Design the sequence.
């Protein structure tokens, strides 16, 4: 027969085991929540990279131009197709292929084009455009993103045929060189 002291000891042991299990479950929930947020960010960032790459590939294979318009105020992007290469026409015919709104997992921060035009420098800038034609992008540059924790990420759009890339951190981009600066 168990004594009162033995019963109390077993009760304390059970409470300690339950407490440890609760502590490990709480740590796992926090870790899982952080992992889930990172997966949502990566999925949305990769969706934007895929839209940019699709625009580049489709423009290279056709006589049409494509635009990926980033909307900072709406935290969204629109993928558009133009029926003509001449965007200076009074009313170019266009088709909206895709419109995507980002959740809180991804925030569009700014765009820096490879001609050093920076959306952070201009007042009331609500959008940035990347236009793809048969020979590549009109301008290359980088799209700066922030994840849920405020960490920077960068999508690099190369002006010519190189694929669009996603990098962790705020990376530098290569700027076009003038002919007199290239030694060969």
Sequence:
């Amino acid at each position: 027969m168990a004594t009162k002291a033995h019963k109390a000891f077993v009760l304390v042991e059970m409470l300690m085991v339950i407490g440890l299990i609760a502590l490990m479950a709480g740590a796992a929930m926090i870790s899982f929540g952080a992992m889930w947020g990172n997966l949502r960010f990566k999925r949305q960032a990769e969706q934007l990279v895929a839209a940019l790459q699709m625009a580049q590939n489709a423009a290279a294979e056709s006589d049409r131009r494509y635009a990926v318009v980033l909307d900072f105020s709406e935290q969204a992007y629109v993928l558009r197709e133009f029926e003509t290469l001449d965007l200076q026409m009074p009313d170019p015919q266009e088709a909206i292929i895709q419109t995507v709104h980002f959740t809180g997992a991804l925030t569009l921060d700014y765009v820096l084009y490879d001609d050093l035009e920076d959306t952070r420098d201009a007042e009331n800038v609500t959008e940035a455009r990347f236009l793809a034609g048969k020979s590549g992008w009109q301008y290359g540059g980088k799209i700066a993103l922030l994840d849920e924790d405020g960490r920077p990420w960068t999508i690099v759009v190369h002006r010519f045929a190189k694929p669009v890339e996603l990098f962790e951190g705020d990376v530098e981009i290569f700027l076009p060189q003038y002919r007199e600066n290239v030694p060969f």
Helices lie at 4-60. The first strand starts at residue 65 and ends at 71. The first helix runs from residue 4 to 60.
